[in-house]
Amino acid sequence: MSAGLLAGKVALVTGAGSGIGRATCRLLARDGAKVIAADRNLQAAQQTAQELGSDRSAALEVDVSSAKSVQGAVAEALKAFQVAPSIVVNSAGITRDGYLLKMPERDYDDVYAVNLKGTFLVTQAFAKAMIEGQLSGGSIVNLSSIVAKMNNIGQANYAATKAGVISFTEVASKEFGKFGIRVNCILPGYIDTPMVAVVPDAIKQQVVQRCPLGRLGQPEEIAEVIAFLASPQSSYVNGAAIEVTGGLK
Ligand code: NAI
């Protein structure tokens, strides 16, 4: 991507205090966007924003699983740069892995609430703001996962939500096309972030062996594709689910 492609745009990134979300904030800012780093962990979001500079970045606290919190985030985001974000990246996500027969209802509900309902709440609220603001060239990027296709043992809750994100993305792309808003999702493979740090080493080794590129991915390697989907370079990409896995299937 080249610098300046996102000049004049405001982007909102959830999960911006860590991993893929934080790397995405860096690259969107590199490409000229003003970036609102949103996370349930305000301190972490502030760290991301601080790194980018206060003239081109702001931090905000949001719990994507709460409609009230997301509504508040829309109001805060509008205040930050006096215009609604036309780029929204849904990167907030959690895992609560465990075998299905032993999975507490709470672990199912929590993963659903953040990964799938959170994507719905943020997408709905910010798409409305884009439409009301009559913004052109809107782009929403959702984080699914290759686990939506691998369907790993111990990840019934996570896999189901990430498969749901693919369907949700496709529906949104069909409904929002007429407003000039594109909606796409990415299926990352195993990326070296705090989320994957808790995966047992033996499983990570298996993943690396199965991956044609023979390594985990870096958060920036996902963020580059997100920056592309956010930009006019991808103006005819809509409703897509793009695997970024180093070839891991
Ligand atoms: P991470 O654990 O490093 O960061 C997730 C961020 O989301 C954290 O800053 C956390 O505070 C925030 N968050 C969690 N719940 C939230 C809520 N309710 N409201 C607002 N913020 C919340 O995770 P990572 O690795 O950066 O993952 C980002 C996204 O990419 C997630 O949706 C994840 O499922 C997806 N993904 C990650 C992969 C990986 O290998 N790291 C692979 C495939 C998909």
UniProtKB/TrEMBL annotation:
<comment type="pathway">
    <text>Lipid metabolism; fatty acid biosynthesis.</text>
</comment>
<dbReference type="GO" id="GO:0047035">
    <property type="term" value="F:testosterone dehydrogenase (NAD+) activity"/>
</dbReference>
<keyword id="KW-0276">Fatty acid metabolism</keyword>
<comment type="subunit">
    <text>Heterotetramer with CBR4; contains two molecules of HSD17B8 and CBR4.</text>
</comment>
<keyword id="KW-0275">Fatty acid biosynthesis</keyword>
<dbReference type="GO" id="GO:0006633">
    <property type="term" value="P:fatty acid biosynthetic process"/>
</dbReference>
<comment type="similarity">
    <text>Belongs to the short-chain dehydrogenases/reductases (SDR) family.</text>
</comment>
<dbReference type="InterPro" id="IPR020904">
    <property type="entry name" value="Sc_DH/Rdtase_CS"/>
</dbReference>
<keyword id="KW-0520">NAD</keyword>
<dbReference type="GO" id="GO:0004303">
    <property type="term" value="F:estradiol 17-beta-dehydrogenase [NAD(P)+] activity"/>
</dbReference>
<dbReference type="GO" id="GO:0005759">
    <property type="term" value="C:mitochondrial matrix"/>
</dbReference>
<dbReference type="GO" id="GO:0048038">
    <property type="term" value="F:quinone binding"/>
</dbReference>
<keyword id="KW-0597">Phosphoprotein</keyword>
<dbReference type="InterPro" id="IPR057326">
    <property type="entry name" value="KR_dom"/>
</dbReference>
<dbReference type="InterPro" id="IPR036291">
    <property type="entry name" value="NAD(P)-bd_dom_sf"/>
</dbReference>
<keyword id="KW-0443">Lipid metabolism</keyword>
<keyword id="KW-0560">Oxidoreductase</keyword>
<feature type="domain" description="Ketoreductase">
    <location>
        <begin position="9"/>
        <end position="189"/>
    </location>
</feature>
<keyword id="KW-0444">Lipid biosynthesis</keyword>
<dbReference type="GO" id="GO:0008210">
    <property type="term" value="P:estrogen metabolic process"/>
</dbReference>
<dbReference type="InterPro" id="IPR002347">
    <property type="entry name" value="SDR_fam"/>
</dbReference>
<protein>
    <recommendedName>
        <fullName>(3R)-3-hydroxyacyl-CoA dehydrogenase</fullName>
        <ecNumber>1.1.1.239</ecNumber>
        <ecNumber>1.1.1.n12</ecNumber>
    </recommendedName>
</protein>
<comment type="pathway">
    <text>Steroid biosynthesis; estrogen biosynthesis.</text>
</comment>
<keyword id="KW-0496">Mitochondrion</keyword>
<dbReference type="Pfam" id="PF13561">
    <property type="entry name" value="adh_short_C2"/>
</dbReference>
